## 1
Amino acid sequence: MTFLDGYTDLPPGKIASVVTFLEMREPPPTALADAPVSLSLRPVLQPSLDWYRKLYRAVGEEWLWFSRLRMNDRELAAIIHDPRVYVYAAHDGEEDKGLLELDGRSGFEIEIAYLGVTADLFGRGAGYWLMGHALCAAWESSPQRVWVHTCTLDHPRALSFYLKAGFAPYKRAIEIAGVPRLTGEVPKTAARHVPLIELL
């Protein structure tokens, strides 16, 4: 496969992001951070698809999380109902405010598939608190590694957040997909940091 330097035009209706893959080969020595604003973390066994999609949207809509929204019920249930996939919700006493999903289906590694909190918790330590719980849960089964990926559509501090948590980058890729604001998975008002180019 040959990659040429320079710009590559995208077809109408497509969006591209640079994806950075990061890994951790041994448990970090850090302790769990105190829970901000009385958050608690609860495992959600066999989550309902409606509940999952609602929280997925609440946490990820602004960052154009779309992959799970493109799945039909069967496809989504096959993942989040798999006994090797662990779904958690961060709860503030009234409603769910954060999503954590760990994927251990490979059998020897754990992927932090999704980790995020709602916008009202930004800057309050909720992300670091959730990451602490993610790492504790991920390393419980003594995997060979824990890995995660982020992209340039994500929160602008997402990459530095993962680096600070102890992850090391090992690969980059370009992801090209249909624009979720045009295909209907998220509203056109989402992701204000990514200009929307309307189809002609």
## 2
Amino acid sequence: MNCRDFLKELNDYLDGELDPKLRAELSEHLTWCHNCFVVCNTTKQTIEIYRENEIYALPDDLRKKLHTAILSKCKKSDKASG
């Protein structure tokens, strides 16, 4: 098992959708490969953080302010590049 092979299987590894033999090979790779361990651990933590978060609706006044600010910034960028 090399790093490239590990990364190809990372999603299925984290989802637990692998046959036991391949899962064991990937787990063994993580015991000695620090780089893959970091990638796997970081990806796993990111998924857990976002899985628990809910989308919150913005108040109308804040939404309007953000929309205006974004449009203003886009117009300034268009003028600067044009």
## 3
Amino acid sequence: MPRTVLIVEDTDICRDALEVALMRMAGVDVRVVATAEEALKQLAGDSVCALVTDLHLPSMDGFALIEAVRSDPHHSSLPILVISGDTDPRTPERLAGLGANAYFPKPYSPAEVRVRLEQLIDAS
């Protein structure tokens, strides 16, 4: 049974590049949504083994999404990777405080994201 990785990204080019990189992972089903609200609906209904999110999303941002995910006992240990062009130097510390497992500033290496994601999935 494939493991499901949920990508939350509202920019087409970023979403497509990440989806292609992660689809190369063996035994992984990649699902993509454009908003945090859609992500929360997916998490409520489906078994997801990891979440990869941008921070700058319409309506609800990635910070609020991570807080919502971590407040749910069913997802308190879900691996969360963040990929963002956020330039605030406090962002990595803030994400760590919220419980994100990894942060990749844009531009990023899709191969590095894939390796870290595999490590987190295998460890959980």
